[in-house]
Amino acid sequence: MDTVIVQLPDPRPPVPPDRRFARLTRPPRTAPPRRPALLHLGPGEAVEFGRGEPGRPIGVPIADQGVSRRAGEITAAEDYWRLSNFSATATYVVENLEGAGEHVKVAPGRLGAPVPFEFSRILLPALGEPVAFKVFAPQHAYLDGVPGSTAGAGGERTVSPFALDPTSKYFLVLLALCEPRLRSPSAAAVPGATEVVARLRALPACAGLTRSAVNYHIDYLVASKLRLREAPEDGPGEGGAGGKREELVALALKFDLVREEHLTLLPPRRTG
Question: Which of 103, 189, 193, 251 lies 20 to 30 Å from 68, alpha-carbon distance?
Fold first, then answer.
């Protein structure tokens, strides 16, 4: 089977900017770029990461003094991998590079935490910026054809709990609400109704969209399409619907109801 691949962090310290070239949009490099080093692990194989100890080299060396000498271990296991945190105080974060802010926290002392992501980035607390390196798992296997739960000859047919129509106007409203966090998982603010109107107005189907219509679509999503069990209390925000927007975005991103490929439905963003 394929191996788990660890992309080793660049051992070279970052090059400080040269003020002589501050006016240039692309300063010249002081050294040519080089391909990152890769480490391949087969099922059952493991590698430690950290600063290392005198006379004892470590598989994934990290130079930052804020990282333990033996900070943790990566173990390959079939089509996923496990992360062990040897630190007594630091929590490690594994980000899903294909997700919208999806991540796993590995607490101090946790051993063998399974990581289900195919493309991951491990973040370790450090003295400067958090230290990061990537881990790639083998491609996951999926069922072919129609799942058995919907292909049975008898009984009632399974009904999708979230039946959304990507060609509908309510879906465009939901997509515009989710766009900031799809593009940048760390984005905190969910757009207000006025911002949604401005974002969608370039689309012919939304040329006449108003704030009242956006709030109507939000209520429709909450009550009928996503059926939030308890309508969230109105929070701060335009039209007093801040809580509803937050709940909708959280639910849509949690269950992948809105994904990065849907962003092509929105008009191009203005630059400059």
Answer: 103
State how far the alpha carbon of 54 is from the alpha carbons of 47, 57, 70, 73, 126, in Å. Answer: 17, 8, 12, 18, 20
Angle between helices 169-183 and 193-200 (to 10 degrees): 100
- Give this prediction's pTM: 0.65
Write down the residue that tokens 């619907």 correspond to: 241
Residue among 208, 197, 171, 192 nearest 240 (CA):
192
- In angstroms, the CA 176 to CA 206 distance is 12
User: CB under 8 Å to 124, separation ≥6 — which residues?
Assistant: 62, 64, 67, 71, 90, 92, 130, 131, 132
Are the C-beta atoms of residues 158 and 148 closer than 8 Å to each other? Answer: no
Which of 5-9, 17-21, 60-64, 153-157 is least confident? 17-21
CA angle at residue 191 from 193 to 167, to 5 degrees? Answer: 75
153: β partners:
none
pLDDT band of 84, cuts 50, 70, 90: very high
Burial 38-54 (b: 16+ CB within 10 A, else e): ebebeeeeebbbbbbee
Sheet containing strand 46-50, strands side by side: 60-61, 46-50, 72-77, 80-85, 113-115
HSE-up (13 A, CA, CB side) for residue 165: 5
Q: Residue 72 and residue 83: Cα distance in Å, rounded?
A: 7
Report the Cα–Cα distance between both ends of the chain, in Å, rounded: 47
Q: How far is CA 260 from CA 50, 112, 221, 237, 265, in A?
A: 34, 31, 20, 25, 10
